[in-house]
Amino acid sequence: MFFVSDAWAQGAEGAAAAGGPLAQFFGGPSSTIVMFALMFGIMYFMLIRPQNEEKKKLEKALDALQKGDKVLTTSGIVATVVTIDKERAVLKINDDVKVEFVRAAIAQVLTDKK
Question: Rounded to an integer, what is the distance from CA 63 to the centroid of its chain?
Answer without folding.
Answer: 22
